[in-house]
């Protein structure tokens, strides 16, 4: 009895130790499960957020494109069908004025996804862009040069502004000139409605790149959620 | 002598004046436009137009229709009516009727030259030309490299030849030169037409002077607004304005230096006939300016029919039909794009 009594405390202490160890293991497992659950929840939330953004942006794109097409019809109504039609498009070789760069980036979880960057009016952005420079230089020397008829009123603006925002105004002036240059296929004196249509389609292009990035995030999040679900089932 | 046209006009012009007044009665009414604005598809528009004078021109067109098809077929009707009047007309009415088409001829020349510069196929460009502005050697325009060749090879034998004297250079054709050429030709054409009508005298001179002066003033405003923010200098802009009209010469001097739409408004509001046009617009807005000008133009053209025994009715009828075709084009675009809420943005009712 005494021996049993002597053995029981040891058993009890070992049992207690085992229980404590089990509890500790359980706590650790619970903590790991909790972390994994929060990661899974985060991925699921990320997927749902991306999906929501994607749907909102698609709707926004539809609205912008509808507006652009109507403004183009309005410009055709104003200027005449002979001035605004598909036959005016230039079939001569010329570099694109806007470029899209696709790179592979890692997101927060270290998963690779495609990233899209838009470079608008790249033909004046020589050197800053870093891709396609040769083509732009080629275009500048080959294409017919606009006969310079004196200072444009807009060109006076940068001289009058302060140095802090002078650089941004010069860039805006260049962008405006590039916009007018691309509209020149319809004539140099075009209706303001055509310029408005151009801005709408430009906005639509930006929106498309945003949608592409959102879709890339969405697909990346979807893959992660899918992997986690398959891991859970396994 | 003004006032005695009633004695002699009907000898040569009576039949055609009756014809054009009959055609005027066939213009679409507000009720027709209301029906058209409620159409859901282009086939519905075709169905509604089948009950009008456009019916025979659209009935054989297969579905699905396109807006350009509707415009082309409606334009064919105008061309047929014009050709009938031209072949029945004697001098000086026949010359007067030919003058009406020179604007379209200028547009076609610029279309071919611009398209050729952009390396487009000539056949494709010819299909886009306005039928009222066609002439025999128009396809040869694609060969010219500069304005001197353009004149020498093709245009010297056309009615546009006298208008080329102000813009003949040996510089190669590019987008800016072509635009300058277009506006210079149109300016010369309007001035020539104005002088011709003045020579005719009587009611024709009085009514056409008013209509052409309005056309010249509207052109001046459009050139000003369209050239804001471009590289066109003030001097070049001033050179494109016509040498007649209500705005000539002081209004032109002020318009030449305008840098934005509000400055244009402040210039135009000094002239009572244009004050009412600009009063419909809010500050900084130019989107509804076209419609305001079209409404004023339609009003003046309708007034031309209030008087008899003059040639102004022919000019007014052609312009009213062109406005009607623009209305149909706009309605068709709004229906095709499912934007019927915007249909009244640009439709101008004639009656």
UniProtKB/TrEMBL annotation, chain A:
Q: What is this protein called?
A: Vacuolar ATPase assembly protein VMA22
Recite the lineage of the species: Eukaryota, Viridiplantae, Streptophyta, Embryophyta, Tracheophyta
**Mind telling me which InterPro entries this protein's record contains?**
Vma22/CCDC115
Q: Which residues fall in a compositionally biased region of kind Acidic residues?
A: 16-26
Mention one GO molecular function. unfolded protein binding
Where is the stretch described as Disordered? 1-37, 132-168
**Taxonomic superkingdom:** Eukaryota
Q: Look up the record and give one Gene Ontology term from the biological process aspect.
A: vacuolar proton-transporting V-type ATPase complex assembly
From TrEMBL, chain B:
Please provide the record's keywords in A-Z order.
Hydrogen ion transport, Ion transport, Transport
Q: Which locations, inside or outside the cell, does it occupy?
A: Vacuole membrane
Q: Which GO terms describe its cellular component?
A: proton-transporting V-type ATPase, V0 domain; vacuolar membrane
**Which Pfam families does this chain map to?**
vATP-synt_AC39
- Highest rank taxon of the organism: Eukaryota
**MF-aspect GO terms:** proton-transporting ATPase activity, rotational mechanism
Q: Does the keyword Ion transport apply?
A: yes
Give the principal location in a single coarse category. membrane
What's its membrane topology? Peripheral membrane protein
Q: What does this protein do?
A: Subunit of the integral membrane V0 complex of vacuolar ATPase. Vacuolar ATPase is responsible for acidifying a variety of intracellular compartments in eukaryotic cells, thus providing most of the energy required for transport processes in the vacuolar system. Subunit of the V0 complex of vacuolar(H+)-ATPase (V-ATPase), a multisubunit enzyme composed of a peripheral complex (V1) that hydrolyzes ATP and a membrane integral complex (V0) that translocates protons. V-ATPase is responsible for acidifying and maintaining the pH of intracellular compartments and in some cell types, is targeted to the plasma membrane, where it is responsible for acidifying the extracellular environment.
Assembly state and interactors? Answer: V-ATPase is a heteromultimeric enzyme made up of two complexes: the ATP-hydrolytic V1 complex and the proton translocation V0 complex. V-ATPase is a heteromultimeric enzyme composed of a peripheral catalytic V1 complex (components A to H) attached to an integral membrane V0 proton pore complex (components: a, c, c'', d and e).
Q: What family is it from?
A: Belongs to the V-ATPase V0D/AC39 subunit family.
In terms of PANTHER family, this protein maps to: VACUOLAR ATP SYNTHASE SUBUNIT AC39
Recorded protein name is V-type proton ATPase subunit
Q: Which organism is it from?
A: Morus notabilis
């Amino acid at each position: 009895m005494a021996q049993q009594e002597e053995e029981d405390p040891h058993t009890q202490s070992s049992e207690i130790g085992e229980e404590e160890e089990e509890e500790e293991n359980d706590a650790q497992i619970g903590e790991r499960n909790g972390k994994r659950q929060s990661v899974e929840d985060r991925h699921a939330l990320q997927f749902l957020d991306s999906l929501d953004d994607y749907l909102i942006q698609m709707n926004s794109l539809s609205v912008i494109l509808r507006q652009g097409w109507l403004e183009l019809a309005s410009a055709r109504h104003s200027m005449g069908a002979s001035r605004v039609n598909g036959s005016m498009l230039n079939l001569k070789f010329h570099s694109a004025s806007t470029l899209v760069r696709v790179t592979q980036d890692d997101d927060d979880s270290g998963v690779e996804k495609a990233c899209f960057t838009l470079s608008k009016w790249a033909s004046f952005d020589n050197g800053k862009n870093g891709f396609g420079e040769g083509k732009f230089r080629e275009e500048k020397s080959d294409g017919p040069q606009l006969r310079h008829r004196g200072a444009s009123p807009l060109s006076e603006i940068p001289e009058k502004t302060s140095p802090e925002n002078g650089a941004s105004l010069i860039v805006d002036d260049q962008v405006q000139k590039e916009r007018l240059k691309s509209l020149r296929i319809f004539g140099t004196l075009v209706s303001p409605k055509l310029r408005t249509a151009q801005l709408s389609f430009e906005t639509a292009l930006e929106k498309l790149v945003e949608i592409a990035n959102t879709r890339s995030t969405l697909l990346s999040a979807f893959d992660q959620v899918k992997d986690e679900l398959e891991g859970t089932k396994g | 002598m003004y006032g005695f046209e009633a004695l002699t006009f009907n000898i040569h012009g009576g039949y055609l004046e009756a014809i054009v007044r009959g055609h005027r009665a066939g213009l679409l009414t507000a009720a027709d436009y209301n029906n058209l604005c409620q159409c859901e598809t282009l086939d519905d528009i075709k169905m509604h137009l089948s009950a009008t004078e456009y019916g025979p021109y659209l009935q054989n067109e297969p579905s699905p229709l396109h807006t350009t098809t509707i415009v082309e077929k409606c334009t064919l009707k105008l061309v047929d009516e014009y050709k009938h009047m031209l072949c029945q007309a004697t001098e000086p009415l026949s010359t007067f009727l030919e003058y009406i088409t020179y604007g379209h001829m200028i547009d076609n020349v610029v279309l071919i030259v611009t398209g050729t510069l952009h390396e487009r196929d000539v056949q494709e460009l010819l299909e886009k030309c306005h039928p009222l502005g066609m002439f025999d050697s128009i396809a040869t325009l694609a060969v010219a490299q500069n304005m001197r060749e353009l004149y020498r090879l093709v245009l010297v034998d056309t009615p546009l030849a006298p208008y080329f004297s102000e813009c003949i250079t040996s510089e190669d054709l590019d987008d800016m030169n072509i635009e300058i050429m277009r506006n210079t030709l149109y300016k010369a054409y309007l001035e020539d037409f104005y002088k011709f009508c003045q020579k005719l005298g009587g009611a024709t001179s009085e009514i056409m002077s008013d209509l052409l002066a309005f056309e010249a003033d509207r052109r001046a405003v459009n050139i000003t607004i369209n050239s804001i923010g471009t590289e066109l200098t003030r001097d070049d802009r001033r050179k494109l304005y016509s040498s007649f009209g209500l705005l000539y010469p002081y209004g032109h001097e002020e318009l030449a230096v305008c840098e934005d739409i509000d400055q244009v408004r402040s210039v135009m509001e000094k002239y009572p006939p244009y004050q009412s046009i600009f009063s419909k617009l809010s500050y900084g807005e130019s989107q509804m300016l076209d419609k305001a000008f079209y409404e004023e133009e339609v009003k003046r053209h309708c007034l031309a029919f209030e008087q008899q025994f003059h040639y102004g009715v022919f000019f007014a009828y052609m312009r009213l039909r062109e406005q009607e075709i623009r209305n149909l084009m706009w309605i068709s675009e709004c229906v095709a794009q499912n934007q019927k809420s915007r249909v009244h943005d640009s439709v101008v009712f004639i009656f």
